[in-house]
Amino acid sequence: MLPLDEFSLIRAWTERRQPKEWLSAAGVRIGIGDDAAAVEAAPDKDWLFAVDTMVEEVHFRDETMTDEDVGYKALAANVSDIAAMGGVPLHALVSVSIPPSWTPERMKRLFDGLYDCAGRYGVAVVGGDTTSAPRHLVVSVTLVGVVEQGRAIRRSGASPGQIVFVTGPVGLSAGGLHGMLGSASAAETGIPRAKKTPPPPKSLVQAHRRPAPSVKAGRLLLEQGFASSLNDVSDGLASEAWEIAEASGVSIVLKEPRLPLAGELASYARHCGVDPLEWMLYGGEDYVLLGTADKSSEAELRALFRSEGLPLFVIGETEAGDAGVWLDSEGGKRKPLDKRGYNHFARG
């Protein structure tokens, strides 16, 4: 059994996870164990700060996530926010509120997953907070990153006559969640479901449990100066497109035939009796990047991503007019897209 006092638990979950030499190279002067962490400031850079919170029974359940997955995804969501600004993730603070059902052994597994994500993206975990909770686990991660001074890519930079692109397929996470929840009602997920749900393919389950934030893609877009605006797809493609449209004061037109529909997603949706477009537009938690760029740079942008082995799909264009998002179908018919995605405060 693991020791039960707070500081012993923290040491058990965090000690010797990241070598002191590596932490020092990452700019950490004082890490976990003091009243605050001390990190060397980066010259000629802007700091980026992001925070994301996951609540048991709201963001995850035992049916959908392992303990390790919860830790991994709690950090990955923040990494994606830094990627959406074109930045580099650096240092994380982790706060956990732990109910009795989450034993020290379960929490160790959660930290296993969190440190797995930290290792993949070069993040130094430098501190946090630990409290008790009456019923459900709460995990909150604050992530600090850097970006070249004055060059962070924002949602507000789109202008009429530009292309709209996405850096990977969408809808896979929602498809995986749909299958893992099985008979859960549409009111719980916000996405219609068939009465009988077959098991989801492993690739869809993996997409939901272990998303891969697009840090490399974000850096390429910033370093080469291609992206005029950028957003990460956390709450759904339609919702993120609306955020860019409203911030930039443009109309965004998505082309249905160009949306990247993965073969396994299409097949699984067919077996479930679900229109895959629902998952692609409104599912969320794909953590790919949605952005805009000048039409004149499209060929060069495609070539750059191809040379780096990264996916890129041009899925629409921006137009002058009131802020909004539209979908052009294969037959050329245009319809407005609802401003919806995952909403924490929606009431059924």
Word description of this protein:
This protein has 348 residues and is of the alpha+beta class. The chain folds into 2 domains: 6-148, 2-Layer Sandwich (60s Ribosomal Protein L30, Chain: A); 155-336, PurM-like C-terminal domain (Phosphoribosyl-aminoimidazole Synthetase, Chain A, domain 2, Alpha-Beta Complex). It is 34% helix and 24% strand. The protein has 12 helices and 13 strands. The strands form 3 sheets. The chain has a 7-stranded mixed β-sheet. A hairpin with a 7-residue loop joins strand 1 and strand 2 (38-39). The longest helix has 18 residues, at 104-121. ATP binds at residues 128-129, 155, 234. Pathway: Cofactor biosynthesis; thiamine diphosphate biosynthesis; thiamine diphosphate from thiamine phosphate: step 1/1. GO terms for molecular function: ATP binding; magnesium ion binding; thiamine-phosphate kinase activity.
Overall mean pLDDT: 90
Could you name the ranges where pLDDT drops below 50 across 5 or more consecutive residues?
Answer: 185-189, 343-348
Count of folded domains:
2
- The fraction of residues assigned to DSSP E strands is 15-25%
Helix content: 25-40%
Distance between the termini: 43 Å
Pathway: Cofactor biosynthesis; thiamine diphosphate biosynthesis; thiamine diphosphate from thiamine phosphate: step 1/1
Function: Catalyzes the ATP-dependent phosphorylation of thiamine-monophosphate (TMP) to form thiamine-pyrophosphate (TPP), the active form of vitamin B1.
Catalytic activity: thiamine phosphate + ATP = thiamine diphosphate + ADP
Keywords: ATP-binding, Kinase, Magnesium, Metal-binding, Nucleotide-binding, Thiamine biosynthesis, Transferase
